[in-house]
Amino acid sequence: MAAMNRDKRPLSPHLTIYRPQLTSMTSIFTRLTGNALIIGALLIVWWFSALASGPEAYARANGFLTSWFGDLIMFGSVASLWYHTLAGVRHLIWDSGHMLNIEAAERAGQIIIIVSVLLTIFTVIVL
């Protein structure tokens, strides 16, 4: 019976059919930044552990974190922290029942992207 109806059922929509929506992309990016924050936090814990372990361990950890690659990771951590925080605030607003229509949700996505970039630049330059 199931084999007979297999030809008549509609195909499941595929990712290549639909354009990515800003709300779905910001949601995915929120998950990615959360995972990036875990990596940054582990590096900071490694740095503090090396500080407590002695001068050789500290020199190794500090050398890595102050290298160009470590600076890149820490810059990404700052950007992830700002973006993830603002996306969390947006979700709290949604949980309260506000800004749930499509236009407001997309505008909120644009705002958190712009503000997180500005706050990241401010943090890196000023602090």
List the helices and strands and how they pair.
Elements: H1 2-5, H2 22-53, H3 55-65, H4 68-95, H5 102-126
**Count of all domains:** 1
User: What's the story with the biggest beta sheet?
Assistant: none
- Residues in β-strands, percent: under 5%
Mean pLDDT over all positions: 91
Strand pairing plus helix content: what structural class? mainly alpha
Number of continuous helical runs: 5
Computed over alpha carbons, the radius of gyration is 21 Å
Q: Determine the N-to-C terminus distance.
A: 68 Å
Task: Describe this entry's structure for a reader.
The protein has 127 residues and is an all-alpha fold. The protein has one domain (23-126): Up-down Bundle (3 helical TM bundles of succinate and fumarate reductases). The chain has 5 helices and no strands. It has helices at 2-5, 22-53, 55-65, 68-95, 102-126.
Question: Which terms summarize this structure?
Answer:
elongated, single chain, 127 residues, mainly alpha, 3 helical TM bundles of succinate and fumarate reductases
Summarize the structure.
The chain is an all-alpha fold. The protein has five helices and no strands. The chain has one domain: Fumarate reductase/succinate dehydrogenase, transmembrane subunit (3 helical TM bundles of succinate and fumarate reductases).
